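Subject: mismatched residue count in predicted assembly?

I count 243 residues in my input, but I want to confirm that the predicted structure covers every chain. Input:
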Amino acid sequence: MATTKYKRILLKLSGEALAGEQGYGIDPAVINGIAAEIKEVVDLGVEVALVIGGGNIFRGVAASSKGMDRASADYMGMLATVMNSLAMQDALEKQGVDTRVQSAIDMQQIAEPYIRRRAVRHLEKGRVVIFSAGTGNPYFTTDTAASLRAMEIHADVILKATKVDGIYSADPNKDKDAIKLPTLTYLEVLQKGLQVMDATATSLCMDNNLPMIIFDMTCRDNIKKVVLGERIGTIVRGGNSND
Ligand SMILES: Nc1ncnc2c1ncn2[C@@H]1O[C@H](COP(=O)(O)OP(=O)(O)OP(=O)(O)O)[C@@H](O)[C@H]1O
Ligand SMILES: O=c1ccn([C@@H]2O[C@H](COP(=O)(O)O)[C@@H](O)[C@H]2O)c(=O)[nH]1
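Triage response: the counts match. Full output below for your records.
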C-alpha cells in the first residue's frame, strides 16, 4: 500500500462544484466520481471526515440580499448542506464505503446528532463521517464548520476541494491577471483580503496552527494526489511562507 502523508483528513467539498455543468443541484456523474475518489483514499487507510458546502442549492447571503431575513436564509443554507450530505452518503454507500452523517441541527430521522467522540469512533472504525448543517449557527459558513470540526477531531489537515486550482493574488474568476500563490501563511491570506475562504475560518486555522490545502476538485485523482503528498494547489499554514 502507498504511504500517505496524512492519517486523518477533513475534506471540505464545494457544494457548487457538485452541480457540474448544469449549474444547480447535484449532477449524479459528478457526485459518483467524487465518491469513487474518496473510496480510493479510504482504501489507502486514511480516516476521512467530510464537510460539504451548499452553494449548489442555497446561499443565505444571496437570499438575504434580496430581502429575506438573514437567519432564516442561513438555516435554509444549512438544510442545503444536509441534502448534499445525504446525496454523498448514498453515492459512497453504493460504492461499498461505510458512512455516517452527523448533523449540527437535530434531525434524528435522517442523521445522527453531532457528537464529537462518536464521530472520532466512527473514523477509527474506517467509516467516512459527513458533518452536515454547518456549525448549526446562522452567519457562519461551511468553511468555518470545516475548520471547527477539523480541530475537534484532531485532523492532520483540511483539504479544501473547490473549483479553483489554488489561491490567487485576486479572484481568478474576476481578474485575468491574477497569479497563483503556491504557499501562503494564514496571516497573509487575512492581510491581503483573499476571499477564497472566509476570515472566521482562516483565523480559526491560524490560531490552532492547522494547515490547509486548496486545490481543484474537478481534476480526477487530485484528492488522492494531495493525500499522497504531491504538491498541488496552495498550502496555507502558520509561520513564514518561505519556510
Ligand atoms: N484570491 C482568490 N483565489 C482563489 N479563488 C478566489 C479568490 N478570491 C475569491 N475566490 C473565489 O473563491 C471561490 C471558492 O470559494 P467558495 O467559498 O466560493 O466556494 P466553496 O466553499 O468551495 O463552495 P460552496 O460555497 O459552493 O460550497 C472560487 O470559485 C473563486 O471565485
Ligand atoms: O455554519 C453554517 C454553515 C452554513 N450556513 C449557511 O449555509 C449556506 C451554504 O454554505 P456555504 O459555506 O456557503 O456553502 C451558507 O451560505 C449559509 O447560508 C450557515 O448559516 N452556518
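The first helix runs from residue 15 to 18. Marking this ticket as 'not a bug'.
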